[in-house]
Write a structure and sequence with these properties.
alpha+beta, Alpha-Beta Plaits, 2 domains, 4-stranded antiparallel sheet, 29% strand
Amino acid sequence: LQQQVGPGPRRRNRHLQVQRRGIRYEGYGPGGTAIMVDCMTDNRNRTASEVRHAFTKHGGNLGTDGSVAYLFEKKGIISYAPGADEDAIMEAALEAGADDVVANDDGSIDVYTTPEDFSDVNQAMQDAGLKADHAEVSFEASTKAEMDQEGAEKLMRLVDALEDLDDVQEVYSNADISEEIMESLDA
């Protein structure tokens, strides 16, 4: 009977089920900057081709797994806008078990945690009445590559090209671009 009727509904609709997978690409950009690209894709070949094309077109090259990942560390980062109460943030962060609190030159404050403690520390900061400007688990470069004007322009074109790809979720770089150069790029 099964042969006469054909495959059941599960087998017939199998092709409609799209399975997306996370994949990370690593490579080098202009000026020797390390770049990691996190993607979510249903077609690894298409995504690899698109990412490779973006790297090649904009002065970079795609590396192998592990070629730049060792230059990044996964951290929880909770950021507060300039003008936030540094003492209150410091006290709450230390009580919550944060790894570090950094006051930046622009007046903003970053609280660093391990990825495992991120959720608990973030909740404790909220419970203390401190509203974060931004909070996420992200990759932070352990060493930075200082960029000049020309290198920064090329890198920004590469990052923009990568971010424009449909499957790209996040782009991480170890570039250190001065405020003056960033302002000139934004103009």
